[in-house]
Amino acid sequence: MSSEIISNENLVIIVTAIIVGTIARLTTIKADIRQYPSYPNGYMINLFTGFIASALGAVAIPALMAKDFVAVTFLTIAIQQFRDVRKSEKESLKELEKTEYTFRGDAYIDGISKTFEARNYISLIVSLFTAITMRIVSSDVQLINIISGAIAGFITLYLLKRFSKGKMIGDIAQVYQGKIEIRDSDLYVDGMYVTNLLGSEHASELFEREGLAVVIKPNEDRFSITLDNYGQRQAALFEATRALGLKRYHFIRKDFEKRRIVIAMVPIVPNIDRFIDVVKQTPLLESTKKSQDVLDTNMAGRK
Fold it and tell me: Three-state SS for 274?
């Protein structure tokens, strides 16, 4: 294929597969309440890497049909490049740790970087299946080939997204507002002792006047294993401070007797509904999914 002019048929296959694969990457970019990736630069980087992944998958089939087996070996190079994307994302997020209200934590950073790498593979696979379908159909009418390839590509995307869909804290736990009490210099939330670090009268008054707290209670006792994980709790705190800002103080406390976790802070934006929502939407980190019970949790509530 490299020594000859690309035929119109192969050109249509390549262009269609690249477009479908790039669209697949676009659909996996979520600017939700966590606002990551940010835009416009975050969007551009993710779209461009998705375009490259789609191009690699698109040219594989025409290269094989032309018996250019050497050209297909660049797929192994692509895998290394995607790993470099994960490494680069991890290093970038770690560099930003000191600029945030609180740390994301190594577990959360590792999960984000792996997700970015996996989404490039989704673009490549969708593009590859689009090209394969178009080659199999191989109709004299190019429009039929294009429609068939696009349908196959989007079905592949749907299946991959369902397979890789992660869970959130809201899937395995209730998250609700906690009642703040100040007893001398001690902070209590729903009767649970949190800290005695509110030593000054000003600190106590500030927390009593502007403080917010949420309680995370697992739906079943076994889910507390996941929620008690330090990396998981740190991720929830980070998302809360990222969404609401942090004016002063932040605390996390576990209650082993009643299987509860409390997050309390004085935010810049005092919005308890947003606080609850962002904690619910905090993803369950892969490093905390030690139990098959968590993986098999009913997802009906999120559909």
Answer: helix
